[in-house]
Specification:
This protein is α+β, with helices and mostly antiparallel strands and 242 residues long. The chain has 2 domains: 101 residues, no CATH class; 130 residues, Cytidine Deaminase, domain 2. The chain has 10 helices and 6 strands; from the N terminus they run ααααααααββαβαβββ. It has a 6-stranded mixed β-sheet with strand order 2-1-3-4-5-6, with helices on both faces. The longest helix has 20 residues. The radius of gyration is 24 Å and the shape is elongated.
């Protein structure tokens, strides 16, 4: 044991956040240079505020990012329960991180300008809905209700499914359209897998909805499948990259 201790005695213990120079500390760096100057790990350390015994807040933040492969979308898709179960995080830190994520999502949805323009292409629909659907690990199905000039009247989340499927009732969509006196409907759902290609189930549901819409003289303008960096349009019958 004595030889083992002697062999590793030259290795310094992990540096604490207080031992870093002020310019290297996340909060001090943010105050001096602005939030844009911080790395993802440093920004996360600001949210976490403190580390735990034997691990600085910066080390904890880097460890947390490593756990999700460096992908913020995987971090922000975690539930409060999942995040708070990680050693050193707890409910308070978990709430801070996920609250910041939700604020960012709402910022992206706030007055994008797309709601004030006619939605005349699948790309416009994709850009409108991406803030709602990016990074979530379950399929969601939404309906967009449009007037005769293709301006958005309202949007509604219809269903929340699993990581691989979701289902909707055509009657709910038609009722929503009639209640809003909408001329047209656009169906939007996401594929958490990252592949926007429609499944057989997607194709069957689209055909079923189109028939139901035709009976009540409501136009189904498109069905757009969102997959973070790409999307598929049934109307334009092709996949697009972001």
């Amino acid at each position: 044991m004595g030889l083992l201790l002697k062999e590793y005695s030259h290795i310094a213990p992990a540096m604490t956040i207080h031992e870093l120079s002020e310019g290297e500390r996340p909060r001090e760096k943010m105050l001096s240079h602005g939030a844009f100057a911080l790395s993802n790990g440093e920004l996360l350390a600001v949210l976490l505020r403190s580390g735990r015994k034997g691990e600085s807040v910066l080390e904890m933040a880097q460890s947390l990012l490593a756990r999700v492969g460096g992908q913020l979308k995987r971090l922000f898709a975690m539930s409060v329960h999942e995040l708070s179960g990680i050693p050193g995080i707890g409910p308070g830190k978990a709430c801070s991180v996920l609250a910041a994520a939700e604020l960012g999502r709402r910022f992206m949805m706030e007055d994008s300008g797309l709601e004030k323009k006619p939605l005349i292409s699948a790309r416009m629909i994709y850009e409108l809905m991406l803030p709602h659907l990016k990074g979530i690990d379950k399929e969601e199905c939404w309906a967009l209700y449009l007037n005769t000039a293709c301006y958005l009247i309202d949007k509604e989340r219809l269903t929340l499914g699993t990581g691989t499927s979701t289902a909707f009732d055509s009657r709910d969509i038609l009722k929503g359209a009639l209640d809003r006196r909408a001329y047209a409907v656009v169906l939007v759902h996401n594929h958490p897998s990252g592949n926007p290609s429609p499944s057989n189930s997607d194709q069957l549901m689209t055909k079923k909805l189109r028939k139901a819409c035709d009976k009540l003289s409501v136009s189904l303008l498109d069905h757009v499948i969102v997959a973070d960096d790409s999307f598929y349009s049934f109307n334009e019958d092709r996949t697009y990259s972001r």
